[in-house]
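Contributing new records

If you add data, match the layout below exactly. Sequence lines come first and carry their own label; structure lines follow with theirs. Keep one chain per record. Anything else will be rejected by the validation script.
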Amino acid sequence: MTPKQFIEALHQLGYLLSDTQISQFDKYRSFLQQENQKINLTALISNEDIYEKHFYDCSLILPLLDNIRSFCDVGSGAGFPGVVIAIVRPDIQVTLLEPTLKRCRFLEALAQELDLRNITVVNQRAEEFTEGFEQFDGVSARAVAQLPILLEICLPLLKVGGLMIAMKGSQGESEAQLASNALKVLKASIEQIQSETLLDSSKRVNLCVRKQQATPKKYPRAYAQIKKNPL
């Protein structure tokens, strides 16, 4: 996907990018390619892959965020989807939650490079980020873990009524079927399944989970326990 194709694809989603936003995406691409030579951020590093597999892929969830004002990107890594959201939606306050210090330093430098004032970087694991519990309208996780595990680490961060988006590949719908017990225990439900196909015919499935009630106090457990015995 070329930058021009990306701009047009965003327009089709309902977002007309300003010259500033177009420049921010170009700087993001360049900075990611530069810093990826120093630390491992992504295996998809060509211009075309960055615009399609990262920028456009992350942009697919934008139409789901109409009523979101505070957003937490769990396991943000190289900033996907959090930084993409912060660029296109400057009215959303975005928290990038990342346990690896090197990646946090990258994210902080990136936010400064792009002059993004609506980003906060937090170097912490989601299940240990207690000050963030029930603080966010929206939460995302992209390529982090299986859905039952994601639900337990992400849902506590949401306000009651908030939206969690689990960004998955072609197996997303299968994962949704495996998460029925976790959804029941954690007082949430799958509200929508968004399925899209990229230019290279790869499939993206975004699972939209609505938090119905407060998360029971015993959750989240320690990550070792969550991973060993998923709900």
